[in-house]
Design a protein that fits this description.
Blueprint (H helix, E strand, L loop, with lengths): L11 H33 L22 E9 L5 E5 L3 E4 L4 E10 L5 E10 L1 H4 L2 E6 L5 E3 L4 E10 L9 E10 H15 L1
Parallel strand pairs: 1-9
Antiparallel strand pairs: 1-3, 2-4, 4-8, 5-7, 5-9, 6-8
């Protein structure tokens, strides 16, 4: 090819350079997507995510208003756990400090590690649900057949929109050893 051509074609080296630059840009975008999504969820409450840091108790309960709080628990597929809320629902006053208890039991004949992942619905309520202390903040170690009560202490902000009168707090209990084993298996099969 004549380097002096002006008919709109580009050389193979220039095309390869542009494609390499495009691939690097797509990799950077994909790498930044998870933190960007986390920030988006934290700001908007999308996805039912709740606060990651404990809230400070600085307000008093709004005794003129009641909010129904429902508890839903699930165990990740085929995990050897029993996991449930001690009560199915509570009625609370926004601004008040409350505690709910969940019960988990390892059904396996071996030591297990689990993690609870919370979600709040409707999503408008997620940013108003403040956990002061929660078993979901850390992984939970269980000996074979061990049963344990797991508390969560929380406040529902007084500025919860008036139209929200029912909030669902759900937890999914995951076997973290199985998840890490599955992801390691996926990585080794991809190699």
């Amino acid at each position: 090819m004549d380097p002096g051509k002006t008919d709109g074609t580009i050389s193979s080296a220039a095309l390869a350079g542009r494609l390499l630059l495009f691939a690097a840009g797509m990799f950077a975008f994909g790498y930044a997507l998870v933190p960007l999504y986390d920030v988006f969820c934290e700001i908007t409450g999308f996805g039912g995510r709740t606060n990651e840091t404990p809230a400070l108790v600085a307000e008093s309960a709004d005794t003129d208003r009641l909010v129904n709080l429902e508890f839903v628990t699930t165990v990740n597929e085929y995990a050897p756990w029993e996991f449930r809320a001690s009560v199915a629902r509570m009625t609370v006053h926004p601004g008040g400090l409350y505690e709910a208890t969940f019960v988990a039991r390892n059904l396996a004949d071996r030591h297990m590690t689990a993690q609870a992942v919370p979600s709040v619905a409707p999503q408008q309520a997620a940013k108003h649900f403040r956990k002061l202390d929660c078993f979901c903040f850390t992984t939970q170690e269980f000996e074979a057949h061990e049963k344990r009560e797991l508390p969560v202490r929380f406040i529902i902000d007084s500025d919860l929109p008036e139209y929200v009168d029912t909030i669902t707090l759900s937890y999914t209990f995951f076997d973290t050893a199985r998840l890490s084993h599955n992801s390691a298996g996926a990585r080794s099969s991809a190699d």
